[in-house]
Design goal:
The protein has 162 residues and is mainly α. The protein contains 9 helices and 2 strands. The protein has one domain: Lysozyme, CATH 1.10.530.10.
């Protein structure tokens, strides 16, 4: 039994190591810098609670949704958030327009009322905000965990919000 636990433990360590290598590849510095700047430039209205949204959150979403901007939706449609309407991927003239649409959706869509309320109350803990947003944003039950992993591995909160 001890050997079995040890071998399972080794498998878990190898698996964690492989995941870390994979996540490190997710940290495309050029994409992070470019998208981080675009997201920050679109969060300009201080009266809108979304202006308090940590940049790390939509940046992690863009990384996950597009594979660092490499998806066809990002390349051909400037859509970095998997935004759809009537089952079709929405196209934008520029990435900035796509980011603006995403932020406006968070600002106005009733599905994100709890998220906006937390921002309006001054909530700034990224993990709390990620959990709240992921509950309404994604179908994947592990979406919040994935976002947190990208934020941590790529040090997004420290780079853009800290």
């Amino acid at each position: 039994m001890f050997l079995q636990r040890k071998s399972l433990s080794n498998i878990a360590l190898v698996s964690a190591f492989v995941c870390q290598i994979h996540m490190a590849e997710a940290c495309d510095e050029d994409y992070i810098d470019e998208m981080g700047d675009i997201i920050q430039s679109q969060k300009r209205d201080p009266e809108n609670p979304i202006s308090r949204l940590p940049t790390a959150i939509p940046l992690a979403q863009a990384i996950l949704e597009t594979g660092n901007g490499k998806s066809s939706a990002a390349r051909r449609r400037n859509n970095h958030f998997g935004l759809t309407q009537k089952g079709r991927t929405i196209a934008f003239a520029t990435t900035g327009q796509g980011v603006n649409f995403y932020l406006n959706n968070l600002s106005a869509n009733p599905a994100y009322d709890d998220f906006r309320a937390k921002l309006a109350r001054g909530e700034s803990r990224v993990n709390v905000l990620v959990d709240t947003l992921a509950d309404d944003y994604a179908e994947d039950p592990r979406y919040a965990q994935k976002l947190k992993s990208v934020i941590k591995t790529c040090q997004l909160a420290q780079r853009f919000d800290g």
